[in-house]
Amino acid sequence: MNMLEVFVSSLEEFQPDLVVLSGLHMMEGQSKEFQRKRLLEVMTSISDIPTGIPVHLELASMTNRELMSSIVHQQVFSGVTSLGLNEQELLFLSQSASGPHSSLSSWTGVPDVGVVSDILFWILKEHGKSESRASDLTRIHFHTLAYHILATVDGHWANQLAAVAAGARVAGTQACATETIDTRRVSLKAPREFMTSRSAAGSRVMLNPNEPVVEWHREGVSFHFTPVLVCKDPVRTVGLGDAISAEGLFYSEVHPH
User: Fold this and answer.
1) Catalytic site residues?
2) Which has the closest alpha carbon to 43: 70, 65, 63?
3) What is the pLDDT of residues 48-102, one digit of tens each?
4) So what's the pLDDT on residue 243?
5) In which domain, by residue range, is 204 found?
6) Which residues contact 74 (CB under 8 A, 6 or more apart)?
7) Domain count, the chain
8) In terms of Cα–Cα distance, which of 59, 54, 253 is closest to 163?
9) What residue spans of the chain are helical by DSSP H?
10) What confidence score (pLDDT) does residue 201 get?
11) Position 1 pLDDT exceeds 80
12) CATH number at residue 235
C-alpha cells in the first residue's frame, strides 16, 4: 500500500485542519499506464479525505506534457481546494492544456503580470468551483522570484492580503537565512507598473510602496499581488516554493459553507 493511502487512512484519527500534497512530478519517468493508474488512485485517495478539510496541491517542474494534461483533466484539479505553482509550472500547464498565452515558448525576464493573471483566471474559470461545476478548487498561490499573486474564487477565502504578504516575507527571510528581512541584503525586482490582464480589459497599475499589496477583481475572481524583497545572495533556495505556499496557507482563512 502506498504512503498516500496510509496517510489518508490516518486522517480520521489525526483530524488535521489542512492537507498539503506534492510529488505528482515524481511519476515523470514511469510508463503511461502506470501514470494513468496512479492518478486514478491519487484521486480516489483525495476523495477519501474527510469533507471540510481543505487540500492544497503543490506542483513541481515537469517536462511531460501528457502527464501535466492528465493532472489537469483527470479531476485532480477539481479534487483539490488550493494550488501552488511557479512561472515554469504555470506556463507549462497552459501549454499542455491549450490555455491562454500557450503559444509563448518561455518567459523572458520577470514574467508579465497580465499574462500570469490571464492564465490563473483561466484555471479557476475552467477547473475551479462554480455553480455549474462540482469542483473544490477555489485558490491558487502563484510565486515567482520578483512577485507573488494569490487568486481566489470570491466567497470562499478571507485574509488574502496577509496571506500573500506573509508568503513574500518568508521568501526573503528563508533565501537569505535571516530571522527578519535585512534591507541591505534584499532588492526589489518587481515591475513598478503593470497591466492586470493582456487578453481582457485589464487596467494599468502603478505600485505604491506604502501599500505594496495590489488587489483587483475579474468576474468573480479576486487577485492579490505583492512584490518580493529578493535576497541578493541566496543561501537557501531548496523548498522555497513549499515554504511560501505553507506560510500563505497559514494566514489564509477558509469561509465555512
Assistant:
1) 242
2) 70
3) 998 889 999 999 888 899 999 999 887 789 999 999 999 999 999 999 999 999 9
4) 87
5) 16-254
6) 36, 39, 40, 43
7) 1
8) 253
9) 3-9, 11-14, 32-48, 65-73, 76-79, 87-96, 113-127, 160-176, 240-251
10) 80
11) no
12) 3.40.1190.20
